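hiii, so i know i said id send this last week but things got crazy w the move. better late than never?? heres the sequnce for the chain we talked about at the cafe, plus the structure i predicted for it. fair warning i was half asleep when i ran it
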Amino acid sequence: MVREQPEAIGMAGTAPAGGEPSHTSEGLAAVVEQLIRPSLQDMGFEIVRVLLMSGGQRQKLQIMAEREDGSLGIDDCAEISRTVSALLEVEDPIAGAYDLEVSSPGIDRPLTRLKDFVRYGGFEARVELRLGQDGQRRFRGRLQGLDGSDILLRDGEGRDWRLPFADLARAKLILTDDLLESHAAAESAEAPAGEA
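okay and structure toks below
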């Protein structure tokens, strides 16, 4: 399994100042992300994804974030919500009313940053490319890490794929027993003595 550290190189995808390339937002959501990223980073949070969804009577602004260790508690969500609300009240980039939703990425999380593909190497994921390879745009298999800025994935037939991160449309972990067991083990390791 290749487990190299991600490189901060320019490519199609948002590259925050001093950060690695990512596919955390697009369109107006990318504008929102650029407004809120510095404050959230100062608070110790990393943005996983920002989505602006329309439908129904109100738009929904969804912000997924986490601390560097992958954690995000209820108090963290409330803190992020207050900060984002204050920033967007001043800048006002979104026309009309919207609901703000702040959450952790969850167990079957989206994979939006190069480091996500290293961190979750060995787990199953769905990866969709914008252009595709060999007539295929959607892939499912075990993440094998990175080679430079290419995502390495082994599909269920044992074929190895090298998928360019620059062509990534979306990627997400698949909820499997392995992932659930890993998550439970990590949570019990973090629990104070006597609570595990």
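btw Strands lie at 2-3, 45-53, 59-67, 98-103, 124-133, 136-147, 150-155, 160-164, 168-173. thought thatd interest u
miss u guys!!
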